[in-house]
Amino acid sequence: MAEYTAEKYIKDVHCGKVAACKWVKLAVDRHIKDLKRSGKKDFPYHFDAEAAKRAIDFIQMLEHTKGDFANKALHDNIKIKLEPWQQFLIWEMEGWRNKDGYRRYTRAYIEVARKNGKTSLAAALANYHFFADSPKEVGPEIYFAATKQQQATIAWDEAGRQIQKNSLLKTLSKTYQSKKHIVIPSTAAVMRPLGRDSKTEDGLNPSFAVIDEYHAHPDAGLIDVIESGMGARKQPLIIIITTAGTNYIGPCMEEHEHLKKILEGSIPAVESFFGIIYTLDDGDDWRDQKVWIKANPNLDVSVDKKRLEEQITLAASSTVKITNIKTKRLNIWCKSVLNWIGYDVWNKCRLEYSEQDLLGRECYGGMDLSSTQDISAVCLSFPPESKGEPYKHIYRFYIPEELIHEKEELDKVPYGQWIEKGLIIATPGNVIDYDFIEADILHFAEIYKIKEFCFDPHFAQQVVNHMTDAGITMIPIQQIYKMMSPMCHSFEKHVLEGAVAHNNNPVMCWMISCVEVKSDRQGNIMPMKPRRYSSGMRIDGVVANIMALGRAALQASMSGSVYEKRGVMFI
Predict the structure, then answer these.
(1) pLDDT tens across 77-131, in order?
(2) Residue 206: inside a domain
(3) Domain end: 280, 305, 329, which one?
(4) Is the pLDDT of residue 198 over 80?
């Protein structure tokens, strides 16, 4: 006999027996208040427990399709068992009805950390609405929507696997894998993925839709397309299932804030809109294990507590990793742009050495050539030759001579003094003279053993052609996540470990203070100037350093360092 746990979950959250954040408590309180309002003239809704149980029964008839829960060697029963918090979601979305018996809610917003079974639950709900919705939906159209069709296909594939593992549903339906369509023959019923990159059809008539990872959507366009097609349906339902993100001006944050205002009562409730947010409370220490369950209601079920602890411990040393762990695993909204390398961290990498100390040594170069009127930078990275030695670096910076005063006023730094000290090279005229950069690189090639020289191909082609003719191996590094992220992670790791040395070049120290990083949803990172400033921040030297060190460290990892090949030399 099925066990229905939603009501107990409601009581346990309400009395504080279950650890829950403010927004979960308010969602539960809303349900309790609505039960008291039920039957009153100004509240045309009632709760139908049997309708909610019907959906729960259907979903728990399905089987897990992957992972340990689908392994018959580990579990005698591999059918889905909905946890109390999951039953509560279905209890709300399927149980509340209007006077005609149709669903009250036409839109739901569910925000919860990753690894809490969102995909499996979304697929199961889609299958319920496809095969067994009540009242019966004629010709249901089910859509899984995401920014890209490939992402939307993940939940569609899960729904398809659930169908294939159920003999009755498999008999009732037909799957066209190449077209990504599941249909019920002799009906208009269809289930398919839909991405922003899909060719959106004008004839959509959705009855049910899952919007996946809404935080990654740049706008509400896809939802608008789906919602506009639902007008003819009696009880359509859009479910937005997402984790927190970093885009504070996107449609997901707007939905998030709108829900919070409804739950707090600061604006009138939209009676057709259900929502819940599983996150930490203000003031919670994100490193405290006791609060993790607030964002991870499936803790110790699908969320491995030990693995989560390992990830949080590893993240504590990196602002980028902290952001990723907070958004993805603790469902905390964070700014996407972060200060990267702190002054104290960079200052610990100071070391007294001269360029003459490095004569004759192998090195890897990086150059960030600006547009003709901005700063350009060159960096050389020297791999260690003895155990415990850090990667040492030297820098060159270039600026158009006639723009020095203008740049000083704009950037509020002493370019003139730096030029007098030989820290920046002023090239004649009002544009960068790349001949000066070429001359320096060729000089470096004479006194150091340059193995490779990295460059951003955007502005560098003329210099690259000349350097290639001079016999220097030039390596193009496009300024995109795929190319830059591994090098950024390498740079960060070496700096945090004290495996990088600089000779306190003030221009480079200033640029380190300017650089921030942006990250995408996969955790890839790139350096950038702060968005809040349209000017006054320069990061050219950091970009050059990232490329030079990244290439040097990569080659060292592939071939072993010098001291690993010949051992430590004693004199």
Answers:
(1) 999 999 999 999 999 999 999 999 999 999 999 999 999 999 999 999 999 999 9
(2) yes
(3) 329
(4) no
Number of independent structural domains in the chain: 2
Q: Which of 31, 3, 28, 2 is nearest to 17 (CA)?
A: 28
Q: Using DSSP, state whether 372 is helix, strand or coil.
A: coil
Q: What is the CATH number of the domain that holds 510?
A: 3.30.420.240
- φ and ψ at residue 291, rounded to 5 degrees: -100, -10
Residue 433 and residue 308 share a domain: no
H helical segments located in 206-340: 221-228, 251-264, 292-295, 305-315, 319-324
Q: How far apart are CA 246 and CA 162, in angstroms?
A: 33
**CA–CA gap between residue 475 and residue 483 (Å, rounded):** 12
Supply 97's token pair: 């009805």
The answer on 410 and 288 residing in a single domain is no
Of residues 39 and 69, more confidence is placed in 69
pLDDT of 532 > 50? The answer is no
Long-range pairs for 470-479 at CB < 8 Å and ≥24 separation? 470/442, 470/445, 471/445, 472/441, 472/445, 475/551, 477/366, 477/547, 479/526, 479/543
Quote the distance between the C-alpha of residue 11 and its chain's center: 35
In angstroms, the Cα distances linking 415 to 111, 322, 400, 431 are 49, 35, 11, 16
- 571, pLDDT greater than 70: no
Whether 280 maps to a domain, the answer reads yes
- If asked whether residues 408 and 307 sit together in one domain, one would say no
Check: pTM over 0.70? Answer yes or no.
no
Query: What range does the domain containing 302 cover?
Result: 6-329
Domain boundary residue among 329, 363, 389?
Answer: 329
Q: Is the pLDDT of residue 504 over 50?
A: yes
Is residue 323 domain-shared with residue 360, that is, in the same domain?
Answer: no
The answer to whether 164 and 170 are in contact (CB under 8 A) is yes
Tokens describing residue 465 = 């052609």
Q: Please identify which residue in the block is written with the tokens 């922003």.
A: 196
Q: Is residue 336 part of a domain?
A: no
317 or 434, which is more confident: 434
Same-domain status, 312 and 376: no
Name every residue whose Cβ is closer than 8 Å to that of residue 48 and which is 6 or more positions away in sequence.
Answer: 95, 96, 97, 101
Same domain flag for 232 and 166: yes
| Residue showing tokens 């220097």 | 472
Through-space distance between the first and last CA atoms of the chain, rounded to whole angstroms:
80
In a shared domain, residues 320 and 348? no
